[in-house]
From TrEMBL:
Residues 1-356 form the FMN hydroxy acid dehydrogenase domain. Coiled coil: none annotated. Glyoxylate binds at Y23, Y133, R168, H251, R254. The keyword Flavoprotein applies. It comes from the Bacteria. Signal peptide: none annotated. SUPFAM superfamilies: FMN-linked oxidoreductases. GO terms for cellular component: cytoplasm. This is 4-hydroxymandelate oxidase. The keyword Hydrolase does not apply. Belongs to the FMN-dependent alpha-hydroxy acid dehydrogenase family. It comes from Umezawaea tangerina. FMN binds at residues 76-78, 105, 131, 159, 227, 249, 282-286, 305-306. InterPro entries: Aldolase_TIM, Alpha-hydoxy_acid_DH_FMN, FMN-dep_DH, FMN_HAD, FMN_hydac_DH_AS.
Length: 358
């Protein structure tokens, strides 16, 4: 982690309620995957090309429903008002100012309409995607999709890695199982079957299937991406079923502590997709060189989760700006040192395993 990010992390830890810090920082069970996500980047090295660069590099990338100024988007994370009173509004403004995409969590503490409005107050063309957990009651899912459409979101990201909620032992130890008084998952307010004026719980369901996802695909004209893909066969199914992108992700090590690091799962997923749709990756991205490695292994862009929360907790909108600016500068620097002019120059032949002659 760069000194800039680790400083923000230290400040965030000092400012946050320790129970909320643990919720943000923690992972499932022994937190093996949490650490592996970061260590996986350290096991690989980049093999630069020389004498083929340019002084000004093009970092922009076309994504479903968005053109981003760099291949780094803000991954969906819940409950930003626990990190800072401005919550998701601050994150949305900072992300729009950085010219990239905010994936707004269904478990946001600000309703999606206000999140999009905050982003568009900075840049009228700002792209916000809506992250969705399919709900067992299809009518609730339909309402959430409509809310995202009405808010002006430009894509949906369906998270499918949570048939049940991960065992997060820090949260169990801390007794953190509900939001404090005065905070709510605002997108869940006034939904069918919920209390009038109140919020419904977000439900995880092991009964959901590809057919439920097909129904969402058929119900909207928005691009639909699938998040939580690790098995190449699931990536192939996503292509076959007309999805618009996949996100290789183990939920930041928060769901199942027996899965591979996200980066280690990427090459086979990218091979299975074979360029048919964009492949995003999140989990453990902490440096611009991590972004370059992921792109060289087949990612179209990466998502960052916790670093954004540390920036938000440390310094609100400014802190999130700092995180995104830092990653952009570092990535641009890494691209220059690889002899790259644009993202297409980050190819598989640049990646070697550290510690073994190649
Ligand atoms: C505090 C926290 C809350 C999260 N909430 C969500 C969520 O609401 N929906 C979702 O799909 N993923 C959620 N995630 C997972 C992130 O989208 C992403 O996969 C993960 O944070 C990436 O790893 P990183 O934190 O190492 O960058 C959450 C992650 C964290 C740390
Ligand atoms: C049942 C509450 C759902 C909140 C989801 C947030 C999340 O995905 C996380 O990793 O935490």
């Amino acid at each position: 982690m760069s000194p800039g990010l680790s400083d923000l992390h230290d400040r965030a830890r000092a400012l946050l309620d320790p129970v909320h810090y643990d919720y943000f920082a923690g992972g499932a069970a022994d937190e093996v995957v949490l650490g592996e996500n970061e260590r996986a980047f350290g096991r690989l090295a980049l093999l630069p090309r020389i004498l083929r660069g340019t002084p000004v590099r093009d970092l922009a990338v076309a994504l479903p429903g968005a053109r981003a100024s760099m291949p780094v988007v803000v991954a969906p994370t819940a409950f930003h008002r626990l990190a800072h009173p401005d919550g998701e509004l601050a994150t949305a403004r900072a992300t729009a100012a950085a010219g990239t995409v905010l994936v707004s969590s269904m478990a946001s503490t600000v309703a999606v309409g206000a999140v999009v409005a905050a982003a568009r107050s900075v840049d009228p063309a700002a792209a916000v995607w809506f992250q969705l957990y399919l709900q067992p009651d299809p009518e609730v899912t339909r309402c959430l999709v409509r809310r995202a459409e009405d808010a002006g979101c430009t894509a949906l990201v369906v998270t499918a890695d949570s048939p049940v909620f991960g065992r997060r032992e820090r949260d169990v130890r801390n007794g953190f199982d509900d939001l404090p008084e005065g905070f709510a998952a605002e997108n869940m307010r006034d939904l069918p079957g919920g209390p009038p004026g109140g919020t419904r719980d977000i439900e995880m369901s092991a009964a959901l299937s590809w057919e439920d996802l097909d129904r969402v695909r058929a119900s909207t004209a928005l691009p639909v991406l699938l998040k939580g893909v690790l098995h190449p066969e699931d990536a192939r199914l996503a292509v076959d079923r007309g999805l618009d992108g996949v996100v290789v992700s183990n939920h930041g090590g928060r769901q199942f502590d027996a899965v591979p690091a996200a980066l280690d799962a990427l090459p086979r997923v990218a091979a299975a997709v074979d360029g048919a749709i964009p492949v995003l990756l999140d989990g453990g991205v902490r440096r611009g060189s991590d972004v370059a490695l992921a792109l060289a292994l087949g990612a179209t862009a990466v998502g960052v989760g916790r670093p954004v929360l540390w920036g938000l907790a440390a310094d609100g909108e400014q802190g999130v700006r700092q995180v995104l600016d830092l990653l952009r500068d570092e990535f641009d620097h890494a691209l220059a040192l690889c002899g790259g002019r644009d993202l297409a120059d980050l190819t598989r032949d640049l990646v070697v395993t550290r510690g073994t002659p190649w």
